[in-house]
Structure formats: structure tokens, C-alpha cells
Amino acid sequence: MKRNVDIVVISDVHLGTYGCKAYELLRYLNSIQPKTLILNGDIIDIWQFKKSYFPQSHLKVIKKILSFATKDTEVYYITGNHDEMFRKFTDFELGSLKVCDKLCLSLDENKVWIFHGDVFDASVHHSKWIAKLGGKGYDLLIIINNIVNWFLLKMRKEKYSFSKKIKDNVKKAVKFIGDFELTASELAIDNKYDFVICGHIHQPQMRKVTTNNGSCMYLNSGDWVENLTALEYNDHKWDLFYYSENEKELKEDISEDLTDINHADLLKIVTNFK
Fold it and tell me: Any idea what the Cα angle at residue 253 is, between residues 260 and 31, rounded to 5°?
């Protein structure tokens, strides 16, 4: 039985990279029936894309998203920095699928502002080659981390996150995350938004931010590389979905009838964006 959800927000899936947890994302997507699905940037990682690596599970995620759009779900694809190639298709609409750079919603008389968040990252705009190099380094770190965690699980020990350890202990990383959240919140408050929703920094979060000019709720949907999280809006409130906390409730069988979309044709479309 699928859960009915009013709005689901996911970001930073990074399809086409070794770190992407496509299988887990498929299990989650197959467990829900959202009225609105918001893809908040970095869904397909064009930066790290390799023709030699785009497995079936990654293609199935795209198929699943398209299947939502062909049924009763509104799908918004908000562009991020890793999928910036799609920005030339801003305002493109195909049925229930819409490509945009940001999204503004009114929910229960609250104004909601949704965007990826790379606009705050100077390295993306002024030193793109550094940002891309950092992306490759992050991808390698995740590969090594996955190998280590495989051995830890075999030894019946808890998983370990190298990236989280770095973010939690390196002062510059902690400061960057804090600055990011504050900057997004200050802009939202100045523009009279009640909620601001971002992705980009792979840090799931829900917290109230108050400044001299007012307050707003800052939300971040996290990612599907490490944290495996999504934002859900239902019954007039936002919640963070953690895959790790709900894994046992999700069915193992992720196969669905998506045969109307050809794998080879889909891979050809993705390849053409590189």
C-alpha cells in the first residue's frame, strides 16, 4: 500500500555517479504517491557523468520520475549546479513536468520559496574547475566510504561516514553550512517568505531562523548519496523522511512496470546533455 503525500522534495541524487544510492531511492519512490514531486537540483550529475557508468537502477529512477509525470503527479525539476545544462530549458513544460530555476508556492497561507542553493557558492560561479575537482574528490571519498562500510557490515559493526566526520569537525565546513543556512533564511525573511527550502549542501535540516527583520523556517532536503533523506508535506506540516529509519517498512521488490520507456533511448537522451 502506497502512502499518499501532498508534496515530496528530493535533491542531490547525483545519478551517474558511484555514490548515488539509486536502489534505495527507488524503494522510497515506489512506496509513495505524491500529488507534487519537487526535484530540487543535482538529480542527474552532468559534471561527473560517464557513458561507461549509468546502471539500470539509475535509469529506473528517471523512468519512475517520468512515470509520475505521466500520471497524476505534478513534477517540478529545479535546476542545480551539477545539472546546470538543463537551465537552457528553464520554463519548459511537458505535460505535468516543468523545468524551472526556482519555485514559489502558497501553502495554508504561508509563502514557500524553493531553490537549489548553489547561488550562494562562490566556487561554483568563479572557480568552476575547483568546484568540479572537489566534486570528483567527494565522489572518490564516497566510493572508499562504501567499501569500508561493506567490511564494517560484514563484521556486524555500524556504518561510518567520512564526509559527516569532516563536516562536523572541520571549522570551515561547519561555518560554511551555518553561513549558507543563515544567508538563505535572511533572504527569505527580507522577501516575506515563511519557508525557504534548499538542497546543495547535503545537510538535511528543519529549523527556525530569527533575525532583526523577522523569522522563517529553513528546510533542506539533504541528499541521496549519504543521508538518504526527503522532505514531505502532509496534513499541513513538513517532515524529514530518513530512509535509515524507515528501511524495514519499505518493500524489497523495486521492480515496476515501466516498460513503456526504453532503457536505450533514455540513456541516449541523458548522454546528449553531456
Answer: 80
The CATH homologous superfamily of the domain defined by 3-116+164-271? Metallo-dependent phosphatases (3.60.21.10)
Q: Is 238:9 a contact under the CB 8 Å cutoff?
A: no
What is the rounded distance in angstroms from the CA atom of residue 266 to the CA atom of residue 109? 40
Q: Indicate the residue type of 135.
A: G
CA nearest neighbour of 43 among 25, 70, 55: 25
d(C-alpha 213, C-alpha 235), whole Å = 29
- pLDDT of 215 strictly over 70: yes
pTM for the structure as a whole: 0.79
The mean pLDDT of the chain is: 82
Angle formed at CA 7 by CA 239 and CA 105, multiple of 5 degrees: 105
Query: Can you give the residue ranges of every domain in the chain?
Result: 3-116+164-271
Q: Which residue has the cell 538518504?
A: 228
- For the beta carbon of residue 29, count every other beta carbon within 10 angstroms: 23
Q: Please tell me the distance from the alpha carbon of residue 204 to that of residue 153, in angstroms, as a whole number.
A: 24
